[in-house]
Amino acid sequence: QNSPFGDAFDRYDLAMGCEHIASFLDALNNWYIRRSRSRFWAADNDPRALQSKQDAFDTLYTVLTTLSRVAAPMLPLLADEIHDRLVGGDSVHLASWPDSAELPDDPELVEDMDRVREICSSALAVRDAERLRIRLPLRTLTVAGPDLARLDGYRDLIAEELNVKNVVLTDDVGHFGSFVLRPIGAVVGPALGGDTQEVMAGARAGDWMLNDDGTVTVAEHTLTEDQFEFGLEAADVEGAAQPLPGARSVVHLDTDVDDELRAEGRARDLIRLVQ
């Protein structure tokens, strides 16, 4: 039962338990289900597609039935309704609490997919800031950071999600700029009092260090993750860039739109209207 849900409930921290469930539902709905639509809609006359379709439904069934048991203490009626429709029989409140040790576990896959989602989220934020609608194709997305070779197999997924022609993975972060630390004054001030200005000055001077646990040490003070944010001091390169969470990687979009890309974007808009 060593899951984030179980740990939160063991501490009677229902607010954190709700937060974990909401975050999980967001990932399930806006990532797994949305990205698996082609599998759910696959034709039954292709054996490989049919097997993939069955696997997708089996996975979703397992997730929903497990989630109904996890959410039952906080959503008793809704969880019972979901459980009844999917499983039947006794009430969900008579079912055993799920044991995460009995479920398939692939930490590397989870970590890789979390990084892919972070890349896509940051790149979409760049698109939004540059007012480049998602149906307008772009030429290249570059992701710079350490240990990106393991994401090579997800290039096509990233390209499709962001509507870009090419995805480049590199370790040359410095080509796109340098990370800057921005302490959040409204949070740091009450916590540090008179030392706040010293921390602000240290951040401006670049006198800070990112720790392995996600905290930052600046001017001999340790800031937790809710007390700061990272920015990117952009280098003189074409396009637009944004740091990923953790200040170790950056995404860069080639924002130059030529006539070919513009025409393809208009075609996508037309197809969307027809649909």
UniProtKB/TrEMBL annotation:
Coiled coil start-end: none
Record GO terms (molecular function): ATP binding; isoleucine-tRNA ligase activity
Protein name per the record: Methionyl/Valyl/Leucyl/Isoleucyl-tRNA synthetase anticodon-binding domain-containing protein
GO biological process: isoleucyl-tRNA aminoacylation
InterPro entries linked to this entry: Ile-tRNA-ligase_type2 (IPR023586), M/V/L/I-tRNA-synth_anticd-bd (IPR013155), tRNAsynth_Ia_anticodon-bd (IPR009080)
SUPFAM superfamilies according to UniProt: Anticodon-binding domain of a subclass of class I aminoacyl-tRNA synthetases
Annotated ranges, domain Methionyl/Valyl/Leucyl/Isoleucyl-tRNA synthetase anticodon-binding: 7-139
